[in-house]
Design brief:
Layout lengths: L37 E4 L8 H14 L4 E5 L5 H5 L14 E2 L10 E4 L10 H10 L7 E5 L6 H9 L2 E6 L3 H14 L7 E9 L4 H13 L4 E7 L2 H8 L4 H4 L4 H17 L13
Parallel strand pairs: 1-5, 1-6, 2-4, 2-5, 6-7, 7-8
Antiparallel strand pairs: 3-4
Helix pairs in contact: 1-9, 3-4
Length: 280
Amino acid sequence: MCVSPLQFTLPPNAPAVCPHTGQSLCDPSPAATAMSKILAFIGAKGGTLKTASVAAVAHVLAKAGLRVVMVDLDPQGDLTTRSNFSRVADPVTADPVLVRFDGEPELPLWLMRGGRAMEAADAETVRRHLARAEQIDPDLVVVDTPPALGPATRTAAAAAVFLIIPSGPGKESLMRAHDVVTIAHEGGRAPIIRILLTKANPQTNLFRWMVENVDELYPNLRSPFVIPHETAAAESAVFDRPVTVSAPRSKSAQAYCDVAADVIGRLGIERRPVPAGVVV
């Protein structure tokens, strides 16, 4: 099993190297451009661990020394409450907040909070809202989208250079993944896409069916990492913190570290010096 990046302390000027494989994380993908700052998680249905994945991957990226802004576009505001904040009346005017977790050092991790008003947001409003994140000068903007293909989700997909589609086992998840891949390529766009299998039990026929069908329909889009079906991932929501904080040595946390390393490597992001005392 891979060793989690959360168990490593990087020297201040450490190169962007995956600590458990030793491979360089600085080979940029052809899709990475000057606008390659938005990583969008799109599930198009509930129950896929989409919000849990956003929280965990963003946390790992921040611990790796990146300036990360999370944007909660979901009117339910689950990413907001999971980050220990209350939903706001008007997300498009609310100030970003610094995210802190008890027992964790201060990280360059911000949140643009969500709320019910996002239900009425049109595409232009969402575009302006995403642009507000640039005021923080982030290395990466990580977006949580609603579980539906409305204006917020489509606008995030259009703006993203990297899309992660969390998909639980089952035919419905496969159909929704197909919908997301379709909208991701509208207008001739070519973002990086990863279909991330979640709630995975490799011993079941259902998981094997999912792998076979994803690989047949979308060769090379399935993430090599899977988020296992385990208690630690479910409990993290109760504790209002990502699983990488509540259970950093769990299989789920290990997998999210690998996902974050894949994002850094594919986008060729140059990591900033890690603050002294921060263990990544």
